[in-house]
Amino acid sequence: MNQTASKRSTIAEIAAKAGVSVPTVSRVLNNRPDVAPETRGRVERVIKESGFIRSRVRNALKESSGIIDMLVPDLTNLYSVEIVRGVEEVMERTELRLALSLTHDSVQFEQRWLAKVIDGATDGAILVLAHGQSNRLDMLLRNSIPFVVVDHRGELGADVPSVGATNWLGGRMATEYLLSLGHRRIAIISGDAALPCSRDRVAGYRAALEDAGILVDPALIRPGAFAQQTGYEQTCALLDLPEPPTAIFAGSDTQAMGVYAALRVRGLIVPDSMSVVGFDDVPIASIITPALTTVRQPLVEMGRVATTMLLRLIAEEPLDSKRVELTTTLIVRDSCAPMHLS
Fold first, then answer.
1. One fold for 3-61 and 167-297+329-341
2. Where are the domains of the chain?
3. What is the dihedral of CA 296, 297, 300, 302, to 10 degrees?
4. Strands laid side by side in the 97-102 sheet
5. Per-residue pLDDT band at 14 (split at 50, 70, 90)
6. 3-61 maps to which CATH number?
7. What pLDDT sits at residue 155?
8. R_g over Cα of the chain
9. Using 50, 70 and 90 to split pLDDT, how confident is the model at 63?
């Protein structure tokens, strides 16, 4: 490779050196009129100085719509809101616009949205899928539409870029904490057993119990959905067992709200009568009474990382890894107590 070629910058570096976004570079290369003369001149100078082959860059960038599409199940669950916050933080530093769509947990809505994106104009997409891998993701790949999946809930192929969290570790940490407080009958309310994140949290729970020499009781493992109603219904079922648990590990903070409600109806006090741990650490977890001990899933950071990955894909830059897992951490608050206080 000659010296000139070795010094060529990436598309993103061109944008950074010129102090503009990747879509602005695209508009300059496509001779679009919606670029200020001063900005156009600055981008042209940087392109020339960087040794770019103009035709190659033009083909790589194609025509930019200036729009990033994002798909989430809904905005009633703070889980989704936190991910959107992270996406917005990165998007604010670009000239791109965010188009947000909701599926309302419907596979049909999800598929219709993907069809519209394939047929329409978008620079790329961020997907928070409700029901695992949509059968349309392969269509995004075939149509060369850059995308990143956040907190995947299905089996993703090796060629699908995704961002998630260490769910197994989170499940283990929550259970080990309850064990350290002297609890031995620890229940877990999970999400849909078909979801990898649900299975990983239960696997972490099982591993902690087995390492402590405690036999896993199948009656204490309750599947459902990451919803408040599931937390309520499964807590009622757990309390009706001949030997109820002394602690409940909820699969999400939203589920934990249902756990709290069921305990109140039964006249039980958290943490005196029952210790409770959640998962996610959405804002409400720190302001309810008692404040919820929970596993923090870095939702905002997951949104940031996914957006950063997508911008690199749009610029046709290689990713360091197609799969990124961010670390979960245990946040101890007031919803758990040692067994001797129960």
1. no
2. 3-61, 67-165+299-326, 167-297+329-341
3. 150
4. 97-102, 67-72, 124-127, 147-150, 162-165, 323-326
5. confident
6. 1.10.260.40
7. 65
8. 24
9. low
Distance of CA 115 to the CA centre of its chain: 22
Residue-level pLDDT at 7: 35
Which overall architecture, per CATH, does domain 167-297+329-341 show? 3-Layer(aba) Sandwich (3.40)
Q: Mean pLDDT score of the chain, rounded to an integer? A: 86
65 or 48, which is more confident?
Answer: 48
First to last CA, the chain: 71
Reduced 3-state DSSP string for 259-272: HHHHHHHCCCCCCC
Per-residue confidence band for 136, with pLDDT thresholds at 50, 70 and 90: low
Residues contacting residue 323 through CB under 8 Å, at least 6 positions apart: 156, 161, 162, 164
Instruction: Pick 222 or 129 by higher pLDDT.
Output: 222
Query: Which residue, among 128, 119, 124, 174, has the nearest Cα to 154 in the 3D structure?
Result: 128
Residues 132-156, buried b or exposed e (16+ Cβ, 10 A)? bbbebbeebeeeebbbbbbbbbbeb
Q: Are 114 and 90 in contact (CB under 8 A)?
A: no
Any idea which fold 67-165+299-326 has?
Answer: Rossmann fold (3.40.50)
